[in-house]
## 1
Amino acid sequence: MFSYIGRMWHMWDAMYLHHKTQLKIILELKSLDISVAPRETSEQHHDRTVQLWNVVHEWHTQFDKFMTYQKQYVGSLYTWIKLNVIPIDTNLKPNSSQPHETTPPIKRVLHAWHEILGKLPDEAAKKAINTFAEIVKTILVHQEDELKLRMKIEDTRRDYGKKRRQFDDWAQKYIHQTAGILPEDRNPDGARPDPMAERKAAMEKLELSMKELEEMYVKQCRVVREKSLSLLRTNLPELFRVVSDFSLQSAGMFKGVWSIAHTNDQLDE
């Protein structure tokens, strides 16, 4: 147990240094110029965002399990020790009428460990990680809306290209067939619209719809880019501040438990 507590202390100390470095990098990135970065969400970019969400979600799940199981283990062991381990009589003189009893070293260590687990701000850390997971999920939703709109534009372009070719073929044949015929002779009583004007209007309407979608897509790309950047700049520093603070407190508290265990170990010698 002495060795395990020592490893926990060094682990959280190393985690604090990593999180502190990450926080420094994130704060420096807040002033980064991203004007040259791609303005559209690519499939690869979206895949990386999905990967990030999976990692952060798993981080939250495993952190929650780690803290829950550790509290249950130490709490159960400490309760068992309190109920079953009899204090040690350190005064073994035959004629002593009032023996002096001391608490077993393992009980003092478990008591200290049990106490620090109750003081650690793990709920704040879990909340910060979960909040960031939700932030990444929000970015994912915006990216998916952008990608769906891009697919719609691509479908509209294909449809427009197909109908444009059909119209051009028909228009060429129509002009050839009606060559030399005056407009008033083609529709003498004005009973029906001119086929050329009717089909041309339909093509113009489709072209206008495509341009509106393209304008909407450009706007959506800008919104996704700005919202994603704003969310990351706001929430990433807070995430690493919280986990840095948790790591620092964990390292300090486990160092205290290690000192108690180390002192007990030396006394036993």
## 2
Amino acid sequence: MEAHMKRFVAALVACLALVSISASAEVQKKDVDIKASDGINLKGTHFSPGTSGPGILLLHQCNMDRHAWDGLANDLSGAGFHVLTVDYRGYGDSGEKTTDPDQRRALRPKWPGDVDTMFAYLVAQQGVDKSRLSVGGASCGVTQSSDLAARRPEIKTLIELSGSASDAGKAYVARTAALAVFGAAAEGDTNAAKGISELVGASKNPQSRLRIYPGAEHGVPMFAKNRDLQPMIVSWLKTQLMSRGGN
């Protein structure tokens, strides 16, 4: 009877520990307003794990908005990451919204400053570990995110889907061996696959990874067809930012 009771108590303690871990990783999702340097409102969503952890900014592709990242952001936050997704100005719920392609292109010179502001907002959030930071992008977000990494050397990893980095971004990756890059594209999306391959190929970090999938999906739509991609990104980021001196 005593042995049975001890086993019961041990099992109960284990269950309570699992409940505690699960509760600590419960995703808290909150829409936020971020003021750009010129006063324009940038609308974002902060996915918080409810505890301290790494931070990652995700920049959407130019035929979508920040909600394209909702699935990945939720999974990353459940794994212990603070995730910030933000609509570029001209898109989604951010200021200067327009559907005119020419007007959107005219706004792009303002995006680097906006992206700096987004990143600063993320880093300032309670619980974000400033020593474990990442940025990711899809399509046009590849250029924006890799350029941000070149401006902010505290960024440790890049997640890039279906796009091309600028020459400055590729040069930074090539000379910064500490920066690990995960890149993915579809082989039928020819230019994007070439751009991602060049970016990952420039990396000297042995942890950098490249995935080229069959098909022609561009950016986030690759998740629906290639079910392994989203969990692969989560696992890779956990290895880079949590397993190495992290939580």
## 3
Amino acid sequence: SGRVQCTPMTGEFDLIQRIRARAGTRDDVVLGIGDDAALLAPPPGMQLAVATDTLNSGVHFPPETAARDIGWKALAVNLSDLAAMGATPAWCSLSLSMPQADDAWLDDFIDGFMALAAMHDVALIGGDTTRGPLSICVNVMGLIEPGRALRRDGAQVGDDIWVSGTLGDAAAALSLWQSDKPMPAELRERLNRPTPRVALGCALAGIATACIDVSDGLLADIGHVVAASGVGAEVDLDVLPASPRLRALAADDAEALRRWQATGGDDYELCFTASPAQTQRVIEAGIASGTAVTRVGCIKAAPGVRALQGDDEWQPVSTGHEHFSI
């Protein structure tokens, strides 16, 4: 159990009860919030996909971010990991550290968290509350048929590299915040409320050879794929998809646009590889899931990731975000 130190008006168990009342349910939850552990009944013959992400104030979101946006994002970044595996979300747990008990903040946080959970039929089955700096750790569990999981280690020489949606909005928003510049609403929305591409990930099972979500930066995340697969990659920076708002913002700064799109991260789009013979099926998967997909490069035999601008190789200062780097 947690150790939140609260005023007599609002104790830890009052907070837990406020969360429990909003947790949602599923028929496969035998026992949810309220005991030492949850009991689940996964469907026979299915594998579990499990992912965990932690969000800290000032690192993963600006401290002034609205509570309901923090709640949404805390779940979204975890659902994005399930999407990258081609898994269908089912359950989640929530560990919440708060500086002090705040009913209004908690209600808004749960509003955002459960709004996204309801969209994907996810039940909140347990977790922990404690007192400390604002930090949210979410564990998500999903279901997938054996042998159907999208992994990082399946990319083959000759495969095309694809991305979903558009890239760079979240990184641009974060850059503006760090520079104390006004943040356009469209970019703020992409930073605060990313869209986990769950439907696309499920549609790509059996089509894509490898997949990852773009959290640390496109080049860094492609680097994870090629390292796991024992291959290399070439990425065409000129074809990276950008939103109209981002293009307008970077109209006079092409270098910033390249940096935000190629190395910025936090978009939580999917980057995946597929054989050229699967192009039509990739396009159909995008249409079926209501998600734009763009071919942005190809898998090569030579190791490493080359970012090309025309015939020239672009050398970024950093390929993406890395915790604990100097």
